[in-house]
Amino acid sequence: ARALLADLSGPDQCNSANAIFCSWMAVGNVLGFSAGASGNWHKWFPFLMTRACCEACGNLKAAFLIAVVFLLFCMAVTLYFAEEIALEPKDAQQLSDSAPLLNGSRDDHDASSEQTNGGLSNGHADTNHVSPNSRAEDSTDAGSNSNKDDVEAFNDGPGAVLVKILTSMRHLPPGMYSVLLVMALTWLSWFPFFLFDTDWMGREVYHGDPKGNASERKAYDDGVREGAFGLLLNSVVLGIGSFLIDPLCRMIGARLVWAISNFIVFACMLATTILSWISYDLYSSKLQHIVGADKTVKTSALILFSLLGLPLS
């Protein structure tokens, strides 16, 4: 979706388009996480509950059902209103990337071009006289056209996408290799956060267990709902931050803004480990191991969730 919006907006409006994209993403996240913080979906959609599906199962099925409906609606709107102009590929670009992967096709193409140009420079004006050299040139041209067709067929093949990505790497500026490495390592930290943030809240902050006794299961469920509320706050900060990115990039530069966001991610991820230590220490010091979250630890965890909305924007 972000790439499609970048194509439609053009180079002069990419920053504004990114801000609009992040703001609407924040609106959707707020609605989604606020819905996840509620445990009443099974009451609103009672037909989803069966003898084999409890309340938690009904809530999950209802959330997926709503997600499917919204996804189909938004995709239909996008396909109807987004009009792309198909660009014709240039032969020179195709040959420069894919021709070295075909055996001798590029050499044959260059050789045929030189022979053709040489024949034109000699100024043959007699169209009735056909020499053996001209027949050879015609056969060479036919061979070059067939090689060109092979290259175009290769470019249209299913394996060409990976080949184009790998061959285009050599055209990148030197600094882009560092950017790609940092982006890969940064997303290695983002995906565990997306997958296990609410689980971390239920286990490490609330000390619950989805497979424990009744009180532990309740504590885990409360922690998961509190984690969803933290993601709601994260989305609110994401929406606010999306409008601040463009002015900040103009004031201090995009490179510094990007570096600061990565350091925020690092600090917040490190703080989750520190909070886990503190929460476990407080939990172990209680004589009866009272299940639940410490108020200070819970507030700190919500602050961390909120701060991560800035680098996410």
UniProtKB/TrEMBL annotation:
Residues 97-153 are annotated as: Disordered. It is found in: Cell membrane. It is a multi-pass membrane protein. Residues 113-134 have a biased composition (Polar residues). The chain crosses the membrane at residues 62-82, 176-196, 227-245, 257-278. GO terms for cellular component: plasma membrane. Keywords: Membrane, Sugar transport, Symport, Transmembrane, Transmembrane helix, Transport. It comes from the Eukaryota. The keyword Transport applies. Pathway: Glycan biosynthesis; sucrose metabolism. One of its GO terms (molecular function) is sucrose:proton symporter activity. Its main location: membrane. Belongs to the glycoside-pentoside-hexuronide (GPH) cation symporter transporter (TC 2.A.2.4) family. This is Sucrose transporter.
